[in-house]
Fold this sequence. Notes:
Blueprint: H1 6-58, H2 66-76, E1 82-86, E2 92-95, H3 108-113, E3 119-124, E4 131-141, E5 144-154, H4 156-206, H5 220-270, H6 275-306, E6 315-318, H7 319-329, H8 331-337, E7 340-343, E8 350-353, H9 355-371, E9 378-385, E10 389-396, H10 403-406, H11 426-436, E11 440-446, E12 450-458, H12 462-465, H13 480-483
Parallel strand pairs: 7-9
Antiparallel strand pairs: 1-2, 1-5, 3-4, 4-5, 6-8, 9-10, 10-12, 11-12
Helix pairs in contact: 1-4, 4-5, 5-6, 6-11, 7-9, 9-11
Protein name: histidine kinase
Enzyme class: transferase
GO molecular function, one term: ATP binding
Amino acid sequence: MIKKGIRREIVLHYFLVVFMALLLVEVIFLLAIRTYYYDSVFSHIASHIGWADEYYQTFGLNDQSTSAMTRIMSYFELFGTELQVLSLDGQIISSSNKFDTDMVIRTSDVTQALSGETSRWVGKQQGTNQIVMAVSRTLKNAGENQYVLRYVTSLDKINDKLLNVTLLSILIGTAVLATVLAFSIGLANSIVKPINNIRAVSAQMAKGRFDVRVKGDYKYELGELASTLNYMAQEIVRSNQVKDDFISSISHELRTPLTSIKGWSETLNSGGYDPDETKIGMQIITKETDRLIGLVEEILDFAKLQQNEMKLVTGVVNLRELLQEIMLNLWAKAEKKGVLINLDSELKPMIYGDANRLKQVFLNLVDNAIKFSHEHGTVQLSFELDEKFVTVTVQDYGIGISEEHIKRVKDRFFQVNPVNGGTGLGLAITQQLVELHHGHLELESEFGQGTSVKVKLPLPSPELAALIPENDADVKSLPINSILPVHEGVREP
């Protein structure tokens, strides 16, 4: 007995399907064989009885004497059958077996024969209980019924043959079912065995063993399932490694400012320092505190995005003004590295969005562009407009990103160079914020040649665009060096 499980279900279903199909085929086959034999007997008797009727019409026997009945019996007798001549009320007038001549026959073949048809009846014969077929037809003279000619033949031999055919078909069907059962068990094993293997591996993974893998070259859906499970384990291992690297990195990032804050706090608390040193210490404490706040806010933002709790406060956003504000915010950092930030488009696209979150997006992108640019390099900002979208491009010509890292650079906690510091969440948060604005972020890079980041954001519909007030102030449309003071080490466009 097969124990409960997928194997049993597969075997049972295959067996039932084939069994029902075989049963249906055998029933139809046996009915067809039975019908064929019975129809053959009926056709043979019917053709003979038709010939008898023609003979009777030609040489009509008008009297009911014993000699007339004897002639009818001798002329119309058929080998292997009993011939009965009946009166119109079903009384046996004469019979070829000389028995039961006083019987009255009221079977359906007799009643139908009176209506002018050649009819048959299959059933048990009175007295012998044999299965017989009776074929009857009226003999007419001058258009009037005179006798009912009835042939009765035993079906025992035919039924014996049908029984043999039935037994043979049952034997063949049993052999087919046994073969199907063997094949279905083999098929079930070919399916269940890899499933059991996959189940065993997944159970080990559930216990934290992500170094195990599903082994075996499985086909179709099972192969895809095994590959997916192996890929999942690989990604979990990678995610755990990234998480460990993140914990190590964030611990270092938090320890550094905390050490500075603690050191200067203890120094200032000890007293005895002049005002200038005290001012420097307070500036360092403020700077490191801001750095800590930034790290914590970045982690909190990521947690909100992961839990779908980030809420946008939407309004009209002038992207040109937003980018120029970011350029002002990052001017000091760019000046230290001698990097020129250039906005070469006069377009002033207006969109609906959360200005603070969009500022966070472009601040991160431009900050990264400055960080990975060469000294005295250029960061290029531009707009492209089509019917439904505005595309903001942040292009740098710095160190670029290798093919190895380009596919993973958007992953959470991933850092191309951990030495540079940070949490590795910036680009992951940026992408999710862009997607919250129903936009799309594309990143293209070539190692040693630079990186291009495109942020595609939807423009407001014509109905909403008509509600946006026109802003005549064109201060932010001036070139960057007319807004920012020119310092030594910052190249003019």
